[in-house]
Design goal:
- By secondary structure, the protein is α/β, with parallel strands linked by helices.
- The chain contains 15 helices and 14 strands.
- Strands 2-3-1-4-5-6 form a six-stranded mixed beta sheet, sandwiched between helices. It has a four-stranded parallel beta sheet with strand order 8-7-9-10, with helices on both faces.
- Strand 4, helix 3 and strand 5 form a beta-alpha-beta unit.
- Helix 10 crosses helix 13 and helix 11 packs parallel to helix 13.
Length: about 400
């Protein structure tokens, strides 16, 4: 992917849903004018969700997700349907593809009800218009009648798709915390875990958000932070979570201080709810099951933050030996109730809708959940300082304690 390309997590996710052989893959290809999905007359050709990042005007950067049929059968079919449900968790909007010859079946009606419950914008496309007589087409005069083969109705469907208004998170990363012209220090340690030649995604996103506000982001390593503070007094300091303890000793109490991870978790989640996860984290006992979940998959290093450092800090801080479990990428348990607490990454590589659904799932199942940044700060006794920039959340922390 180009360095200037929009990250998948920042793109609108559009999922194609429907029964087998209604032409979901063909319609996706017709909408994009590309052969992105494999098409066949054989039922069940799409066996796993297929994702493609692209520009789809007038929506802009999107991820299109082609899914297996909702009516797939057998043990393998059930697993494919589960994959479709996982794809739906990531969706900002959906296209339900029905066969124009049969109309809506119970399978499509059920998924439409699910979309309504989730308040997800959607369109229903009746495909295979080329197989209908002119008289049969009349009953679809007010519907989206399309043909993947002849491209009939495809442009109209694309225009209607562009008018849908997906749910978007109203909380920015940093724009509401600063004003135009404010100087912000962004503390980026360069250590063995730092990627060569680039900044990690949360750091890039905070810089971009600050620039859009008209603020002045200044990036420094933790080793040069003290020197930078002698030259300029910033409005806010944002640091990598792992350097928080060191940075807090350098930055005066008069200067607000927080972390990239906490900013990201606030934008994609609910910090107030995650305070409860901190209370559960700090009350862990021996053999308590803990889930540490990471949204991306990457090569694990010897000092990996999720599988190595956080468990080590928990052991050191609490003097207990919990039972740690780990997931990464799209892998995430449907049942969280066996766990005493879930510690989740900030979700920079996950679509906002997916992150929101994971937090909601934990809340509905009564399982406390928190994020990497807050957990690290709590384990190093710096959480109160990191939340001072969010007074309403900081007050909840006092109540919990």
């Amino acid at each position: 992917m180009s360095l200037n390309a929009t990250p998948a997590s920042n793109r609108l996710h559009i999922v194609f849903l429907g029964r087998t052989n209604t032409g979901k893959s063909s319609l996706l290809n017709a909408l994009t004018n590309q052969d992105l999905a494999v098409v066949s007359a054989i039922s069940g050709t799409t066996t796993d969700p297929v994702k493609k990042s692209m520009e789809l005007l007038p929506l802009g950067p999107v991820v299109l997700i082609d899914t297996p049929g909702l009516d797939d059968t057998g043990e393998l079919g059930s697993k494919r349907i589960e994959k479709t449900k996982e794809a739906l968790r990531q969706a900002d909007m959906a296209i339900v593809v029905a066969d124009a010859q049969t109309g809506l079946t119970e399978a499509e009606k059920a998924v439409i009800e699910e979309l309504k419950k989730k308040a997800l914008p959607y369109l229903v496309a009746y495909n295979k218009a080329d197989l209908l007589t002119e008289e049969q087409k009349q009953k679809y005069s007010k519907e989206h009648l399309v043909s993947s083969l002849t491209r009939e109705g495809v442009n109209a469907l694309k225009e209607a798709l562009g008018k849908l208004k997906p749910q978007k998170d109203s909380i920015p990363l940093i724009q509401d915390l600063v004003s135009p012209g404010d100087v912000i220090f962004l503390v980026v340690p360069i250590d063995s875990a730092a990627p060569k030649g680039r900044l990690i995604l949360p750091q890039q996103q905070v810089i971009r958000d600050a620039l859009e506000k008209g603020a002045l982001p200044l990036v420094t390593r933790d080793t040069e932070l003290a020197q930078a503070l002698t030259k300029i007094t910033p409005t806010l300091v944002v640091t990598d979570s792992q350097a928080f303890g060191k940075v807090m000793k350098i930055v005066p109490e008069s200067i607000p201080l927080t972390s990239f991870s906490i900013l990201l978790s606030r934008a994609k989640g609910d910090l107030e709810e995650q305070i409860k996860g901190i209370k559960a984290l700090l009350s862990l006992k021996d053999r308590d099951p803990v889930l540490i979940a990471e949204g991306c998959t990457h090569h694990r290093q010897c000092e990996d933050i999720g599988t190595v450092k956080i468990p080590k800090w928990i052991r050191e801080k609490l003097q207990v030996e919990p039972d740690f479990h780990f997931t990464s990428g799209g892998e995430y348990p449907k049942d969280l109730t066996p766990y005493k607490v879930v510690i989740h990454c900030g979700g920079c590589m996950l679509p906002p809708q997916e992150m929101k659904n994971r937090l909601l799932q934990a809340k509905e199942q009564g399982v406390p959940i928190t994020n990497y940044g807050m957990a690290i700060a709590a384990l190093h006794n710096v959480l109160a300082r990191s939340l001072q920039v969010f007074p309403s959340v900081a007050s909840l922390l006092s109540e919990e304690n």
